[in-house]
Design goal:
The protein is built from six helices and 45 strands. With 755 residues, it is mainly β. The protein has a 22-stranded antiparallel β-barrel. Strands 4-9-10-7-8 form a five-stranded mixed sheet.
Length: 755
């Protein structure tokens, strides 16, 4: 507790100190800026951050490169209120302002104009596996806090994360390469290379931009049960192809293809087995293949900008989790009596047959195979005239189909590898489809100079269809053969947003907002789950906030702060079956999330840029859960899982001249995440504490004229902190604590070249 309070106090001091500017760095990178203020498109028109009356942060591509950001989870320290429930590659949940829980995504994640979603798995948790595309050749990232459904087609209950890539340059040839070689403590050598080529096919009319990357990160987790070192080697590769056509000055047409491939073994290790040791009896591979195709057409009328966009995403995700200990624990006379003898002791023959049945599957994994096809389409018209009214109207459609086969399969006891052909112990099939139609719009009135009043509304209609059946039974997990069973739910309704702001001076703006968020319900598909627990309801919230945006010393210092209060109704939460083996979705009662966010950027000395942000979040149940009497039922006052009270980040970068043509740079980044718990009830058998941690990264380099090239020495996790990002336990794990953590200290060299 003392360390947490001391660190939080230090972060507040950093946030109030003269700090610095991703905005200034953007100016050197060619990003659009006004003074020291990044121009964003969060309101579907270009506005500077300081003139945008919502809680928003932006990070430029140059800042991301200098900070070592490669995927969305690396952004956590860059913006207040942004965090991740980090279970490792392909297993990450985006969280803004403590709006965190299983189910459909609560944060809208966009790559350019395209919203993406994760896979449902057996637990209907599409928000827990957000697709992660490589963050190379990025223009900027925008973090919008609070519900955004009246401006964003896919909706966003708690906020929106926008990744905006650099687009093809139609005027000239260009290229860039970025390569790194590093070594990780407890592991070995890593290498990473990315390249970009921009080619105008017809000057000012047609151009292409091609990006490719390959990454191999050595493992640092040892499996002590199998005697295998460095099991979590990660390989990731893919690319991006962007075609831009500009038939006229008014019309732009973009076609993009994204490909991402990831291969690794689970990064979970067992806390009781020692740091970075896994005692799993099996290998637990993860294979994630993502393809995303998008098209966007923009036409500039005199009075408005029209955007039509569409996308198709295909994703295949497979993972494995060891269930061997749970199976072996079933090998007892008592379990035979309960499962075979109807409560009476088993006969010798019954016991022998039962033991053979358990032994056959005593080394096995749950091996869910998921395949998704998702289509989206959106039409939007936004005014671009300067008058008393600004407005945006739009329509959105999406259709997502996910097929899940969730078998338990046997593994080889010696190697831990999955036996092939597969030996299926039990299996559950799920076909899930979700269709959404929405219409949305906002109108902003400028009644007098400096004042804005905004009203927005969104009408939505959801259709969710689920068909599930079990074709291979297992008495050990209560799985019975069941015919295909269909569940359908349809929901529609409205959400609203109201915003008002006033600029007292060009450097001081006050705003206030009330906005509504919504998420659909559905049905569980867990093996052996009681029928009464099959369905779960939609949840919704109201977000109330007030914020102040200020600029100082001719915009050399930007300081923004906001406070918010969120009332969350029928919160969807993770529950566990009575045997503690499986999780499913239920509804809590009500929750309240209160917090304060502050962010400061400054450049008061030539060459010295400083940044700082701090977040305080109090996220608790405001009434007892209404999910029935289970060990995991939360009570009024319990904190929402995986939501720390304090978070913060800070950075300092100094650039100076070495010679007439060479420059030097030095940078330090700091990230603090406070402690949290894995469940509402801290005294629950399988609840685990996630302790606070702090991470420090550093970079020192030499750069050529105009940053045309650079060579850098860098270190991530400088203090080699054992930063646990997620901790879980269950009956499947037999009470062991499985954790994921930040990569140990890594030292490397990085070279960049622009042509």
């Amino acid at each position: 507790m003392g360390r947490s309070l001391f660190t939080a106090a230090s972060l507040i001091a950093l946030a109030w100190a003269p700090q610095a500017s991703a905005q200034e760095q953007a100016a050197t990178n060619g990003d659009t800026v006004v003074g020291a203020d990044i121009v964003v498109t969060a309101l579907k028109r270009s506005t500077s951050i300081q003139e945008t009356p919502i809680s928003i942060s932006a990070v430029t591509g140059e800042t991301m490169a200098n900070s070592g950001v490669q995927d969305i989870a690396d952004l956590a320290a860059s913006a207040p209120g942004l965090s991740f429930v980090d279970g490792g590659p392909s297993q990450r949940r985006v969280v803004i302002r403590g709006i965190q829980g299983s189910g459909e995504p609560m944060i809208g994640t966009y790559y350019d104009e395209t919203p993406v979603t994760g896979m449902i798995g057996a637990g209907n948790d599409a928000g827990g596996s957000t697709p992660e595309l490589k963050l190379f050749d990025v223009e900027r990232v925008e973090v919008l806090r609070g519900p955004q459904g009246t401006l964003y087609g896919a909706g966003s209950m708690g906020g929106t994360l926008r990744i905006i890539y650099n687009k093809p340059d139609l005027t000239g040839l260009g290229s860039a390469v970025d390569a790194s070689l590093s070594n990780t403590r407890y592991g070995g050598w890593n290498y990473d290379a990315s390249a970009m080529l921009n080619v105008p096919l017809a000057t000012d009319k047609v151009g292409v931009r091609v990006v490719g990357f390959y990454k191999r990160q050595d493992g640092y987790i040892d499996n002590t049960a199998l005697g295998i070192d460095d099991i979590n080697v990660l390989k990731s590769y893919g690319g991006r192809l962007m075609l831009r056509m500009q038939p006229s000055e008014r019309w732009t047409f973009d076609v993009t293809t994204f490909l991402n491939r990831t291969r690794t073994d689970t990064p979970l290790w067992t806390q009781e087995a020692g740091k970075f040791n896994s005692d799993a009896y099996t290998r637990q591979p993860i294979v994630d293949d993502t393809e995303l195709y998008s098209i966007a057409s923009t036409y500039e009328f005199d009075f408005a900008t029209f955007v039509a966009s569409g996308s198709y995403m295909h994703r295949e995700l497979s993972s494995a989790s060891d269930v061997s200990r749970f199976m072996q624990a079933q090998r007892s006379e008592g379990r035979c009596a309960a499962l075979v003898g109807g409560g009476s002791p088993c006969s010798d023959t019954q016991l022998s047959d039962y033991y053979d049945y358990v032994d056959w599957q005593s080394y096995s994994v749950l091996y869910p195979q998921q395949e998704m096809d998702a289509w989206t389409g959106e039409l939007r018209l936004s005014s671009n005239t300067t008058g008393i009214l600004d407005w945006t109207i739009g329509g959105f459609w999406s259709d997502r189909s996910i097929a899940v086969w969730n078998p338990q399969v046997n593994t080889d006891p010696a190697s831990g590898e999955i036996v092939r052909p597969l030996q299926v112990v039990t299996g559950r099939h799920i076909d899930d489809s979700l269709t959404q139609l929405a219409g949305y719009g906002e109108v902003t009135l400028h009644p007098f100079e400096g004042a804005q009043l905004t009203g927005g509304a969104r009408y939505f209609h959801y259709d969710k269809d689920i068909v599930g059946y079990t074709d291979v039974p297992s008495i050990l997990v209560g799985a019975r053969i069941t015919p295909p069973t269909a569940v359908n739910s349809t929901e529609n309704g409205w959400v609203f947003r109201f915003n008002g702001s006033y600029e007292f001076t060009p450097d001081v703006m006050l705003y206030a907002e009330a906005s509504q968020g919504y998420r659909p319900g559905g049905a569980n598909q867990v093996l052996g789950l009681d029928a009464a627990l099959t369905g779960y309801n939609s949840d919704s919230l109201w977000n109330y906030e007030v914020g102040l945006k200020t600029s100082w010393f001719n915009r050399a210092v930007l300081f923004n702060i906001d406070a918010y209060w969120i009332d969350w109704s029928d919160m969807q939460v993770t529950q566990r079956t009575p045997n503690g083996a499986f999780s499913y979705l239920g509804n809590a009662g009500k929750a309240t999330v209160k917090g304060v966010e502050a962010e400061v950027n400054a450049m008061l000395l030539d060459g010295l840029s400083l940044q700082g942000n701090v977040t305080y979040t109090d996220a608790t149940l405001s009434e007892d859960q209404n999910t029935g009497a289970t060990a995991t039922s939360g009570l009024k006052g319990d904190r929402i899982p995986y939501v720390p009270k304090w978070m913060g980040g800070a950075s300092a970068q100094y650039d100076w001249s070495l010679t007439d043509s060479l420059g030097g740079m030095a940078r330090v980044d700091f990230n603090y995440v406070g402690g949290s718990w894995s469940d509402f009830r801290r005294n629950y058998t399988f609840a685990r504490e996630v302790e606070d941690y702090a991470l420090v990264n550093a970079r020192l380099g030499v750069e050529g004229p105009g940053q045309s090239w650079g060579a850098y020495l860098y270190v991530t996790n400088l203090l080699d902190a054992t930063a646990i990002t997620r901790a879980t336990s269950s009956a499947i794990a037999q009470g062991r604590t499985l954790v994921s953590s930040a990569t140990p200290r890594t030292i490397g060299v990085n070279v960049r070249q622009k042509f």
